[in-house]
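Sample intake sheet
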Amino acid sequence: MKKIIYLFPISLVFLVACNNSTQKEEKHETTEMNKEAESNHQHEESQPKVQLDNGKKWKANPETITGINNMLGLVQDGIDGKKELATLHEPLQLEFKTIFEKCTMKGESHDQLHNFLLPLKDELAKFKEVIINAENLKEMKEYLLTFKNYFE
């Protein structure tokens, strides 16, 4: 009987300790997941957004306009089935690179162009890793069409 009396408090301490440890692990996992979600959210928010020039469109250089139009054409060809989706990454990337190489814009208009192009860069990086599908292309087309809302 004495053994049972001694074992009961030891068992109780063991159970409480194990339960406490499990709660700490769960709390740690939840905290880590929250930190990761918060980090991703902050990354999205930290990307600068394109803004108008006091309600007016920015003046873009002709090469930039041509590059955006060429990208729109490639995307539309993919949507229409004129080009194989798997072959679109390279020409889209080339047009994107050409926009940067031929950019002659300066000052705030240049900065705003970069704000516009950053999301495209992210999308093109995804296309390299994931097979392009019609839904991706439609989203890219919609985004490329917003160029005219900010630049002329």
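Comment: The helical segments are 2-46, 62-80, 89-101, 107-129, 134-145, 147-150. Residues 7-44 have pLDDT under 50 and may be disordered.
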